[in-house]
Design goal:
The protein is mainly alpha-helical and 171 residues long. It is built from 5 helices and no strands. Helix 1 (3-28) packs antiparallel against helix 4 and helix 2 runs parallel beside helix 4. The longest helix has 40 residues, at 32-71. It is elongated. The chain starts with a helix and ends in a 6-residue tail after the last helix. The model has no long low-confidence stretch (mean pLDDT 90).
């Protein structure tokens, strides 16, 4: 499979998970009992965000795609790769904030529910904008400039990252 097409396919899964998170958070907003029902599902979503959206997908980009693009002259500092890396870090920070708030909800009540909700909304917005930038700028550059040998190298690297970060289960 074309590694850039694979990243785009993964984006569809990421966007679906973000939509689920937003939907559940909106339904539970301001309702303590509804939020209690949301917590187990939020836990599973956070696990997906940590394992796949944070470790596997960006791991592929950071370990293989970005270096391949840099070798072709795509700028990291002040360029599209630097922006993507900064957004990866922001996503990690927001997931950590959701994780913290979720753990504190039983003791912290409304304040922690608000923290979780605010971080979830910021995360969803960040991912939507991030994916749009990747698909309409960075991935287009990659598709145009990477030759077949480079794409084969990416595909092998992507498989290795998936095996290391996700394990035998496919997302």
């Amino acid at each position: 499979m074309d590694p850039i097409a694979e990243l785009k396919t993964e984006h569809r899964t990421v966007l679906k998970s973000v939509a689920i998170l937003e939907s559940r958070v909106e339904k539970a907003q301001g309702d303590e009992a509804a939020f209690a029902c949301l917590m187990p599902e939020a836990e599973r979503l956070l696990e997906f965000f940590e394992v796949f959206v944070d470790a596997c997908h960006p791991g592929r980009e950071e370990s293989f795609l970005f270096p391949a693009l840099q070798a072709l002259g795509v700028s990291r500092q002040g360029g599209p790769i630097g922006v993507m890396l900064d957004e990866h870090e922001e996503g990690r920070r927001l997931v950590a904030s959701m994780r913290e708030a979720l753990a504190r909800i039983p003791a912290g009540g409304a304040e922690e529910r608000f923290r979780f909700t605010a971080a979830a909304r910021q995360y969803a917005l960040l991912l939507r904008r991030h994916i749009e930038k990747e698909e309409y700028a960075l991935f287009r550059i990659a598709s145009e400039r990477l030759d077949e040998t480079a794409k084969e190298h990416l595909a092998r690297g992507f498989e290795r990252i998936e095996a290391e970060k996700v394990g035998p289960y496919r997302i």
